[in-house]
Every structure is written in C-alpha cells, then in structure tokens.
Amino acid sequence: MKQILVYSDSVGWGMVPGTRDRFPFDQRWPGVLEIALNGDGKQDVRVIENSLAGRKTLWDDPFRPGRNGSVALGEVIEINSPLALVIIQLGTNDFQATHDIKAWGAAAGVGKLVDIIRQAPIEPGMPRPEILVLAPPAIEEPKGANVQKFEGAVERNKGFAPALKEMAQLKSVHFFDVNSVTGGSKVDGIHLDADQHIAIGKALAPIVADIVNRS
C-alpha cells in the first residue's frame, strides 16, 4: 500500500460552505481522490488527511492557537512515514485580515513547507516523499461570517496561483491549479461545494497515480 498525506486547511477538511459542518469522506476531495485511485483495482492507496480549519502556511493566528502550518510539520511527516506523496493545499488563510500578506508571501510560505518536508526526520532507509502543491480556489467575494475575516483578501489573493507555480518550478515539485477545473463556492467565496470537491478529486486522480507509480 502506498500512502499519500494531504496537508491542508478547511478547504481540504471539507467545510460545507456557509456552515460549520463537514462533508463526509467520500464527498470531500481527498476521499474522492482515494476512491478514484483504488476504483480500478490497479492501485492500493491510502489518503491520510491532516487538514485544519484556519491553518496558515507559517504565520501565527492571534486568535486561534495551532494554526501555524510550519510548526510540527516535520513530526507529521515522521509519524505517517513511509509516504509516497505529500499534497499541500494551503495559503487561503494567509490572506485573512489579521495579516497583510500578498501572493508572493503566501507562495513563499508554501515553499518553506516544502523545505520542512524534505528535511523531516524520517527513519533511515525510508523514502523521501514526492510533493504536489495545489493552488487553492481563488478567493471570491467573501460572504457571511467570512466578510470581516477576509476583508481585502480578494485583492491580496490576486496572482497567487502563478506565484505558487513559479515557486514549485524553482523547488522542483509538482504543481496543479485547481482553478483549471473549478472555482470556489458562491455561497461563502472561500470553500468548495460538493460538486467542486468531486471535480478536484477526479482531476487529481490521474496526476497522482502517475506520481506515485513513478516514485
């Protein structure tokens, strides 16, 4: 069995837009991905979810502890090893109003996570995982409870996907822009509707299969 770690925030966690509820595993994109990979019987893959609502790349949240994604990431890799692949989908929360972070800064934050994964203290002889960086859905006009939390985020988020792609190329990691298959939810401007989770999971399946089969 090959193991894939998803390191994400509430988008990967599967928060139902406009609520504090969560889509079930088979409806959120990591679950859709696992089912798609194992569906033809040619793969034996386990997708491990490590997604936390509000998680940033490497910034502390002044109101919610434990949201700095760089803290303990090395131990997360060590705990779940051996891993064939780590998928990072982070950056959305870097654009919250608590920080004046723009596209380049958030992309650099993801780049730091790449470095941490590569330096993680895994057991001798275990493989270093491949890394796939996902550009999350571009932030639409925030609605509901997200209006104040993401004030000004639409402007700061501009250019994030291209900045992530450039970072991924510089660090020689895989990259996929989910905006090529779907945008974000119109309900809250941040998360994903059920059909959008399905679109992302299914689009990722052949890409991930190719990566893990070559790893």
TrEMBL record:
Signal peptide: none
Domain SGNH hydrolase-type esterase: 25-194
Single GO term (MF): hydrolase activity, acting on ester bonds
Protein's UniProt name: GDSL family lipase
Organism: Ferrovibrio terrae
